[in-house]
Automatic annotation (TrEMBL):
Name by which UniProt lists this protein: Glutamine--tRNA ligase
UniProt gene name: glnS
Lineage per the UniProt record: Bacteria, Pseudomonadati, Pseudomonadota, Gammaproteobacteria, Cellvibrionales
Residues that bind L-glutamine: 65, 210
Residues in Glutamyl/glutaminyl-tRNA synthetase class Ib anti-codon binding domain copies: 338-436
EC number: 6.1.1.18
Amino acid sequence: MENTPASNFLQTIISDDLASGKVTEIVTRFPPEPNGYLHIGHAKSICVNFGLAEANGGRCNLRFDDTNPEKESQEFIESIQQDVRWLGFTWDGEVRFASSYFQQFYEWAVYLVEQGKAYVCDLNAEQAREYRGTLKEPGRNSPYRDRPVAENLDLLARMKAGEFGEGERVLRARIDMASPNMNMRDPILYRIRKMPHHQTGTEWAIYPTYDFAHGQEDAIEGITHSICTLEFEDHRPLYDWFLDNLPVPSRPRQYEFGRLNPSYTITSKRKLKQLVDEAVVAGWDDPRMPTVSGMRRRGYTPAAIRKFCDMIGTTRSDGVVDVAMLEFAIREDLNANAPRAMAVLKPLKVVLTDYPEDKTEMLAAPNHPTREDLGQRQLPFTREVYIDAEDFREEANKKYKRLVLGKRVRLRNAYVIEADAVVKNDAGEIVEVHAHTIPNTIGENPEDGVKPKGVIQWVSASAGKRAEIRLYDRLFNHEAPDRGDNDFMAHINPESLQIVNNAWIEPSLLEALPEQGFQFEREGYFVADRYDHSSEMPVFNKTIGLRDTWND
RNA sequence: UGGGGUGUCGCCAAGCGGCAAGGCACCGGGUUUUGAUCCCGGCAUUCGCAGGUUCGAAUCCUGCCACCCCAGCCA
């Protein structure tokens, strides 16, 4: 049951195609446009495409759908590859580029013109919109629709040669201006763009549109199942039209699934960019961003993200997935694999008055409660230790399971102590607690039978080290920040980041490597920052808190 | 009657004519040197609504309703 491969409508189609002999091998592809960073929605698409190929002994290509130089760049090409690899997937062969098929696309465009199935149209953008009609009214034929083939050929060649300016002419398919499907109303195949392309330089003055490129890219690569999201469903008839009217080498089929919409987050590239541009976050890889690089810096793991994608399934229905599911997947993975350590976020000094000033005991502590293979580390125990200010009260009701004046508590992996007195400053704030240890309580309960009320984390004041801890929380405090006419900028959680400069960490944490994750006991999961962490200046990001069912 | 989709527990999601899986969340209880984990138990007489077919329907038919996508020379 645990390892049952995700069964969904796509897997059913694939199984049927394999069984019927329609295909002998499954070939999918992940086709991002290099115009931004990958986000959680792309992660799902990656899991679906690579996952299906993997589960069926097939292959999956990574192909950049780089048909619009205006918005694309090499920076994105690199970050996307890095993200896919980080998620744990390996694409088949070399990375592919739609741009490497440009010559073939052009020849096919000429072919369509020769067949009388495409024509050069001189309407400008505004006129074209008028001629296109509306959702409820049919469009009208372009006055250039019946241009002679020879003239079309000549004009197309000159478009390619750069003789015309941007927007002056386009190449369109001759299909049906009265189609109820807007995509079939003589769609544009080529537009003029006098701009260098990141892969082809200044070789081309015209660039194919998504519609005229995607299916052919799939056909060239021998893609069997071209999987995309629901909004492309209306494009499928056009996708098929090109494949039916062109001498393509193979016949891919397009299938669509529902986009992922996690609650409390946005996945619109435009809006994410706005967050970056307006400095609401520190960048595309800010730990609060739903980008793959942001989640990575936050401490989410590839395994957790993949588990989450398995959990939510792949269907054709649209919905909002509770981020609690993502958080569950993160906690599940980290709980099983992250070494434990202790850190105190809000230090309150506890002086163990019975403990010698010059004494240091090294106490062995397991790195994980159930996984012995994770080993153990040494915790220096000294007369002065820090505990979290939240873990001490002068008085409290019986539900409070921490240190209370006159009562006992267990210092995790160390002694049981009993609080004797508090030291306050002029403002009446508690600045220090005096306590004493209960003898022989390492790994044992007190001999007098008076058990501690609870267990709290601590760090030696003299042997511990200072650290910066960045506490991250949800970026939005609204379940659907950009639904309907919500202004997502108005739903930003003002407390999505709180920086703790004077946290105290156990010395073993100085050995943490960037991107290494830990559970700081009783606090949550934290990761050493990918860029800012060092043993000289430790910086940890809060990945996610522990599940908290504490009432009252 | 513009076209294309989707509607099963608060959320995700199985099911495809034989009498509602599972996960998340939530609520109880147990274990526990993490108020974590783990363990046990609870959680849709009902499948958008209304009719119909059938011995029998979430699954078939008909009609409604709701929501999503499409009028970029974006993808």
